[in-house]
Automatic annotation (TrEMBL):
EC number: 2.3.2.27
Record PANTHER family: E3 UBIQUITIN-PROTEIN LIGASE LISTERIN (PTHR12389:SF0), ZINC FINGER PROTEIN 294 (PTHR12389)
Catalytically driven reaction(s): S-ubiquitinyl-[E2 ubiquitin-conjugating enzyme]-L-cysteine + [acceptor protein]-L-lysine = [E2 ubiquitin-conjugating enzyme]-L-cysteine + N(6)-ubiquitinyl-[acceptor protein]-L-lysine
Protein name according to UniProt: E3 ubiquitin-protein ligase listerin
Protein's UniProt keywords contain Zinc: yes
Pathway named in the protein's UniProt entry: Protein modification; protein ubiquitination
Enzyme class: transferase
InterPro entries: ARM-like, ARM-type_fold, LTN1/Rkr1, Ltn1_N
Organismal lineage: Eukaryota, Metazoa, Chordata, Craniata, Vertebrata
Basic residues biased stretches: 1-11
Annotated GO MF terms: ribosomal large subunit binding; ubiquitin protein ligase activity; zinc ion binding
Keyword set, alphabetical order: Metal-binding, Transferase, Ubl conjugation pathway, Zinc, Zinc-finger
């Protein structure tokens, strides 16, 4: 009868003797044995695959609650496994460590299975549960470490980032950083066995049961395993000490001898190809001797794949290309560069990297620096083709639509040009021809195309060219620091500079005189010249990006090197000009060529203004003077003006004189301002005067504060449009330095009386109720004068503020009595707008008696019934 109380087994079958033996061995040694031949593959060390144990063995050795969870982890249902993994982690936190340790003999087999589960949530939860197990058992995991380390490393390379992160977190919880390499070293053979078997023996059908798992799921799992295994090889090599890597040489040789391994370079899945090239880079870095012996396989696999433009593959591929060229001394003997490699490169460059220029083009400079002469000979033909294809990529659809793509191509082109020119600084005829061709057929045409392209103007081209010119000047001895390298001489760089500036001068002269010239061309030319004058201002708008490859040209640069420059947000109209009252900071370029070109451009523009009344050239002249307000430029403009007069082409009389306290016109900037700019400002048919106001302040930057006050007083007394005076005041208030330089003019009687007279005139005209619309610029001028403050004081003299407020109050009071006429609404509205701006902008404004009376009048007016006021 007692037999009925015994625990029953499934099918009423007594556990086999082998099961009891395994149970006994596990209890005595703490290790569950594996069985040779149980796994799908047979190796010399099969112990890394723990044996499967039935539920009856687990029942006898594990806590009842853990027993149930482990059973759930073996189920096929995804939700069941996910909840079981979460429950397992919670139980590891809550239970005593001795209870948790009872699970360890059975954990490796379960972990190795569910860590590769098809569902990413299960994989992530598994790693999180493993972390809790590790935290609880600590050193007790050691006997089982070799059984789990292979799949643990695979999990750290999981294609699902949260799962990989959780695996890494569990690994960090188990081993401090100083012990992680030691732990991998302890298990290196077992780990490499797992990785090799995955790469060489496993298939989609051996990994999953074809009878129960859909084909799509089997294939996805297999692809993920291949990717993780390849990345696992890389991680293992980068983590092991050099001595351990050397000890694995024979086993790595076995891996590299397999044709199946090299076929991964052409695998249909991008993730596998990308991981393969990462492994190649790691092998080149950590086992260069081994890769040299396999050069016949490495070089074709890598170099013949450079046309692979999948976004996942391209970055690791080009890293592998550079590692291959650096590591394998005879790499070009295994491939035909002319027929098999370079044509693919030319096609790729012509298409602008097929939308991947930001990832591809940073590798071009190190690429050409590693090409041997047998590949580039004849050098002139090679470089001509290379740069033609590279610059042609700027016209690709993706580069035209993407500023970042365009900027990457530009940066690469200038970097490579700079490097190539530095490599050909000899006196030999070939070097001279290469310099001439690259300058005249590549660099200057690139600049020329940018002058008509707003997108290229907004890119890094102009700052990079300026930095290159500074570098040449240093080598030519024009800078304070000479940086000549061995084999270079100053004459070569002198000639380079002269040829560049002459080519640029001819190009700009041709453009500025073209009949088809557009405003964007003029803005492009002024942008180029201004950046050359002040690249620091342009550099403030640049966004620096980290680059994977940095090249040093062996010269001390005071500013960021072009290799570190990213995209430049530079608009011509937004270029920063020196503030009023400041001396122009000397630009980084020391030669006289830049100012010479500016003088020529200014003279040509002035002639077009006089001969053809070209407003575009007048705008261009204003932009030039904004950055180049030097005595020489103004002197050349005056010489051109005198020449025009002598030819009888300037019939207008100069109005520059001695009235209004104007100083003698000995200062060329003052003379140009009074003789030409003021006349242009006074033209009745000129609608836009903002660029002329810019020209006024460009001239004032060459004047002392006293001269500035006298000149502005003179302009104030002239019969100019009120909108012009409004623009001048707005420009003077644009920055603190200009405001300080114009302070005496603001506080002076000339401006105060002029504004007071304007206020009286507006009020008188408004009270007449003529019905004509008031001048908005005039009222805006009054509002600005009253509301603008500096250092807690009114912008204009306080006495004039008082008088203007009193006049507005008197006018508003008079308007109340005349409101029945019904046509005073525009006047009242403008006065109320001015009053609102004044009261909201000026602190302590009610200290003025007239201001308090004005506020009371406005309040009384708004409180009245509209039927009585007719407003």
């Amino acid at each position: 009868m007692g037999g009925k109380n015994k625990q029953r087994t499934k099918g009423n079958v007594r556990p086999s003797s082998s099961g009891r033996a395994a149970e006994l061995l596990a209890r005595e040694s703490g290790v569950v044995p594996g069985f040779v031949g149980f796994a799908t593959t047979t190796t010399t060390e099969p112990g890394y695959v723990p044996a499967v144990h039935g539920a009856e063995e687990i029942d006898n050795l594990v806590d009842a609650d853990f027993r149930l969870v482990l059973r759930k982890l073996s189920k096929r249902d995804t939700v069941t496994k996910l909840k079981a993994a979460q429950e397992f982690g919670a139980m590891c936190q809550e239970r005593d460590s001795e209870v948790v340790k009872g699970v360890l003999p059975y954990w490796p087999r379960i972990y190795c299975k569910i860590s590769m589960d098809h569902d990413r949530r299960v994989r992530e939860a598994t790693q999180q549960a493993f972390e809790q197990l590790v935290l609880k058992v600590r050193r007790s995991l050691a006997p089982y470490l070799k059984s789990v380390m292979g799949h643990w490393l695979l999990s750290q390379c999981d294609s699902y980032p949260p799962a990989a992160s959780a695996a890494c977190q569990a690994f960090n919880a188990a081993f401090p950083p100083s012990k992680q390499a030691e732990a991998l070293s302890f298990c290196k053979d077992e780990v490499l066995t797992v990785l090799q078997d995955n790469l060489l023996k496993e298939t989609a059908d051996t990994l999953s049961d074809p009878q129960s798992v859909p084909e799509e799921e089997r294939e996805a799992k297999f692809i993920r395993l291949l990717t993780s295994s390849l990345l696992g090889v890389k991680r293992l090599l980068s983590s092991l000490p050099q001595t351990d890597t050397h000890n694995l040489q024979d086993r790595l040789t076995h891996l590299l001898n397999q044709a199946k391994f090299w076929k991964y370079s052409r695998h249909k899945t991008p993730q596998v190809r990308g991981a393969f090239f990462e492994v190649v880079s790691s092998l080149c870095e950590h086992t260069p001797g081994l890769m040299q012996t396999e050069a016949a396989r490495v070089c074709p696999a890598v170099l013949l794949s450079i046309d692979d433009t999948d976004p996942v593959v391209l970055p690791p591929l080009w890293e592998a290309v550079l590692h291959t060229l650096s590591t394998l001394t005879d790499c070009w003997s295994h491939v035909n560069a002319r027929k098999a490699v370079l044509p693919k490169l030319w096609s790729l460059l012509k298409d602008g990297g097929k939308g991947l220029a930001t990832a591809l083009h940073s590798n071009l400079l190190p690429l050409i620096s590693k090409l041997p002469t047998e590949v580039t000979t004849p050098n002139l033909d090679f470089y001509t083709t290379f740069y033609s294809c590279l610059i042609q990529g700027l016209s690709s659809e993706r580069a035209v639509s993407s500023p970042s793509e365009s900027a990457a191509i530009v940066v690469s082109a200038v970097e490579c040009l700079r490097y190539t020119l530095l490599q050909n600084t000899g006196e030999e005829e070939e070097h001279t021809r290469i310099r001439t061709v690259l300058l005249e057929q590549q660099l200057l045409p690139l600049i020329d195309s940018a002058l008509g392209s707003p997108s290229l103007q907004a890119g890094p081209l102009f700052p990079l060219v300026t930095d290159m010119l500074v570098s040449w000047e240093k080598r030519a001895g024009l800078q304070d620091v000479g940086v000549l390298s061995e084999g270079e001489n100053e004459v070569v760089f002198d000639r380079l500079l002269a040829d560049f500036w002459e080519g640029l001068r001819v190009m700009l002269a041709r453009r500025v005189q073209s009949d088809s010239l557009e405003r964007k061309d003029l803005e492009g030319m002024s942008s180029l010249l201004q950046v050359m004058q002040s690249p620091v201002s342009a550099g403030r708008k640049q966004t620096k990006k980290k680059r994977s490859v940095k090249i040093c040209f062996s010269e001390p640069e005071s500013s960021g090197s072009p290799e570190e420059e990213g995209e430049v947000a530079l608009k011509c109209a937004q270029l920063e000009a020196p503030e009023l009252g400041q001396e122009t900071a000397e630009g980084p370029l020391k030669s006289w060529h830049l100012e010479e070109i500016v003088c020529q451009q200014a003279q040509i523009s002035y002639s077009h203004v006089n001969d053809k009344n070209s407003e575009r050239h007048l705008v261009y002249l204003s932009l030039l003077l904004r950055s180049f307000h030097t005595p020489r430029v103004f002197t050349m403009l005056l010489i051109t003006s005198e020449e025009e007069k002598l030819k009888g082409k300037d019939e207008q009389k100069a109005d520059g004189g001695g009235g209004g306290g104007v100083p003698p016109p000995s200062n060329p900037a003052v003379r140009f301002l009074l003789e030409r700019v003021v006349l242009w400002l006074g033209q009745e048919d000129r609608r836009d005067t903002s660029y002329l106001v810019e020209m006024v302040f460009s001239s004032l930057r060459c004047c002392s504060p006293q001269e500035t006050t006298r000149i502005l007083n003179h302009i104030t007394t002239m019969d100019l449009k009120w909108g012009v005076l409004l623009q001048i005041i707005q420009k003077a208030c644009a920055d603190p330095v200009s405001l300080q330089a114009c302070g005496d003019w603001f506080k002076g009687s000339v401006l105060g009386e002029r504004l007071l007279g304007l206020a009286e005139e507006l009020c008188e005209v408004g009270l007449k109720g003529s019905g004509s619309a008031p001048n908005r610029d005039s009222w805006a001028l009054i509002s600005l004068a009253l509301s603008q403050h500096h250092n807690n004081e009114p912008l204009i003299g306080a006495v004039y503020v008082e008088k203007m407020i009193a006049k507005l109050h008197a006018t508003l009071s008079a308007a109340k009595g005349l409101s029945e006429r019904g046509n005073l609404e525009p006047l009242v509205c403008f006065i109320c707008d001015v009053a609102s701006t004044f009261f909201t902008s000026v602190t302590h404004c009610l200290l003025l008696a007239s201001a308090e009376e004005l506020l009371l009048t406005v309040f009384t007016l708004t409180a009245q019934d509209q039927t009585h006021t007719h407003l």
